[in-house]
Input
Amino acid sequence: LWVYDPETHEMEFSTYFGGSDEEYPPDDIEFDENGVLWLLTRTQSTDLPVTANAFQSVSGDNDGWGDFMLAGFSFAPPTVEYCSYFGGDDIDTPNSLAIKDSLIYIAGKTDSYDFPVSENAYDTSNSGPTSKTVLARINWRTNQYAGTFFGGNRHEQFAQTLNWVHDSTLTLLGTASSDDLPVTDDAYQTTLRGSSDG
Output
């Protein structure tokens, strides 16, 4: 992680961040309104420097494939505001991050059957033989959390999407290969036409 001033051509701040295994390139990076830099990535480390307020302080991964990592940094002075795992016992791959006030929205996919979802989630079960998409929202100050699976009996994946969080809805794009995707009654296309559709 580094901060570079293009006007002075000076490095303002630079640091390593991670654990003893592999951290992948960030899937998404966003600044919040308070200047906290948030990054979402996948980590295979089981010893991340999680913060005391972490939602999930230990990796849920049992096979070395990795969990989501969500981390927030402020720079005056340099401080790790938040660092947490999100994931289950199989591979978890993040895609998109969005911030609204203290709420952090995460979208991605998982092969884990035990990815953290809410009791009142739209879909509480990853019953398919392949990965399923996941949506989560967390208030990083209070750890109030909502998470759900989304998809069908095969494979779905969200694309990295800009401006996908609205006042009361989320809008995401991606691909689907399930023939039982929960389409709405007013859908433009109600059935899968190829091996994988948008």
